[in-house]
Structures are given as structure tokens and as C-alpha cells.
Amino acid sequence: MGRVEGSIKISPLLITLSHISDLRPRISSIRAEGKSVALVPTMGFLHEGHLSLIRKAKDECDIVIVSIFVNPTQFAPHEDLEKYPRDISGDSERASGAGCDMLFIPSITEMYPDGFSSTVSVNGLSSVLEGEFRPTHFQGVTTVVLKLINIVQPTVAYFGQKDAQQSVVIKKMVNDLNVPVTIVIVPTMREQDGLAMSSRNVYLDPVQRKDAVVLSRSLDLAKSRIVEGVRDPQKIIAEMKELILSTGPATIDYVEIVDADLLKKKDTLIRGESVLIPLAVRFGSTRLIDNIIVTV
Ligand code: AMP
User: For the residues 99-110, what does the mean pLDDT come to?
Assistant: First the structure.
């Protein structure tokens, strides 16, 4: 059921809904047929990273619902909400090609009607790493993700390892609040030169785009050091920072080595454990995040 919303062309192959009241009965009948439902929440401007989530969802579930919602509550006032890239017609084509059955594109007032006043917070995990630089971010994320899960009532919801802390926070929320959904985390898709795919990469000018490859190179360096037997996280972090700063103008928000589940900073690395190495670096006004998980 294709249609045109304003001047935006939506793929004729895709059912595209913007009202919760239209979505709910459709999902009820899908569930009543015994079919499994996947939810892939996104902010749109879909790239291969998003599409890998949709493809995996289609492999594992009968019906795939992709939400596109640039959620204002996860942006701080000085962040890039207004200029966040958007391309609904391209998204619709790409999502459909990757196996999406239904697009859910709610308006801000559909999600946050007048008088909306509830929030969901995962304490502790939300205030470290990204949370130190974006103190209100994860409350916005967990609130909108719980809303989307409640609206769609999926069997499985898919998230990317690219946003490692988001994945940890959402898994904790689902566990703490007994939300009846399975969370699946999908590996990070990268450009050929190693840069993690991100909707925000379009902000980079050509020089910054080249410089930004240093993020994945610094993660590779950290992995090599661990494989070589270095067990002091501070030594590895210092080498990573040196590499990043030696490449070009960049501002490091953080580079850390933390416990992969609790996000606690590691004093030393212990054989057999899995650690998360997350980083956030700004190139001009563009802030990029990346990470890897390494088993020591
Ligand atoms: P976003 O539109 O940035 O909110 O991302 C929507 C979902 O896609 C989130 O679960 C992200 O973690 C995931 N995602 C974004 N970039 C990538 C990537 N390069 N590889 C895999 N998943 C990604």
C-alpha cells in the first residue's frame, strides 16, 4: 500500500503507517496468525548498517517493522536535532529492498502528545561514557524504545553494536522491567576503510572523512596490544589517544576500556574476560562514536 505523504514519495511496496491506532490492529492480526514480529528502531537516513539489522530481522522473523523517528528527547538543545539528515523516500526504497514489511513513521505529537510526562531511566549505566557528555541522552533513548516496543509488541527487537552502550542500557531495561521481547545485537557494519557506518558521516568534509579512519585503526591497535599481552588498560588508552591526535585535528571526548556488561573501567585486563573499548571523538562539530569488544 504505497502512498504520498506531502511531497515525499513512499515505496509502493511498503505499508507505511504513521498512527499508532493504524499499526496496532495490523500487528494484532499478524500475531494472531502465529507470526513472529521484528522491530528495528531507527532515526532514518538508512545505510548498510541499518540494512544489516533489517536483513537479519527478516532472516529470523516473519514480519519486519522498521520505525523511523528522529527522537527529540535524546538530543540536548545544542545537538544536531534540527540538521539531522533525513531521506524518507530513499529510506523507504532501501528498507523495502532489505526485507522490511512495514514502516512506522510517527510524528512527534503522535509519540509525545500534549501532556506527555513519563520517562524511563536506567540508572548508573546511563551516566557513564556517553552519559558523561550527554547526560539526558539515554533517558530519551530508553523512553522512546520502551514506547516503540509497547506500540509494536515485537517478538524480537534489533539494535546495532555500533551503539554499544545503548545496547547494554536497553538490555538492562528489558531485563529489569520484564519487557516481553528478545533483544538481538547486530555487529557493526563498516566502510571499506574501516570507518563505522553512521548517518552522521555525511557531516564530515573530505579531510575529516579521511582522518576519521583513525578511529577504527585505534581500535585495531588496542586489539593488537591486548593480543600481544599488554594488560594495562591505561597504556593501551594512551597509545590510542596518541594515534588519534597525531592524525589531524580531533577532540577526544573519551577512550576507555570497560567491562562489557557493567561498563566499569578496567584497572587491569584478565585473561578470558571480554572488555568493551568505546570511544567518542569530535572532528570539527561532528561527533563520532565507535567500539569493539575484545576477549582478552
Ligand atoms: P540510528 O538510526 O543511528 O538510531 O540507528 C538505528 C539502529 O541501527 C541502532 O540500533 C544502531 O546501533 C544501528 N546501527 C547504526 N549504525 C550501524 C552500523 N554501522 N552497523 C550496525 N548497526 C548500526
Answer: 97
Question: Does residue 69 surpass a pLDDT of 70?
Answer: yes
| Cβ 244 vs Cβ 214: under 8 Å | yes
Its pTM stands at 0.95
d(CA 162, CA 66): 18
CATH topology of domain 3-186: Rossmann fold (3.40.50)
Look at strands 274-283 and 258-259 and give their pairing.
antiparallel
- Specify the fold of 199-295: Pantoate--beta-alanine Ligase; Chain: A,domain 2 (3.30.1300)
Q: Convert the pLDDT of each residue in 155-205 to its tens digit.
A: 999 999 999 999 999 999 999 999 999 999 999 999 999 999 999 999 999
What lies within 8 Å, CB to CB, of 178 at 6+ separation is none
Tracing cell 576503510 back to the chain, one arrives at 193
Grid cell at residue 106? 510517527
Which residue out of 73, 80, 162, 181 has the highest number of ligand 1 atoms within 8 Å of its CB and is therefore the one to mutate? 162
Cα-based angle 163, 218, 212 (whole degrees, multiple of 5): 70
**Residues 6 or more apart in contact with residue 204 via CB below 8 angstroms:** 212, 283, 284, 286
Catalytic residue check, 47: no
Contact by Cβ (8 Å): 65, 102: yes
| Per-residue pLDDT tens digits for 51-67 | 999 999 999 999 999 99
Distance 115 CA to ligand 1 centre (A): 30
46 C-alpha to ligand 1 centroid (Å):
9
Residue with CA at minimum distance from ligand 1 atom 10: 159
Residues with C-beta less than 6 Å from any ligand 1 atom: 42-43, 49-50, 52-53, 159-160, 162-163, 186, 188-189, 196-199
From-to residues of CATH 3.30.1300.10 in the chain: 199-295
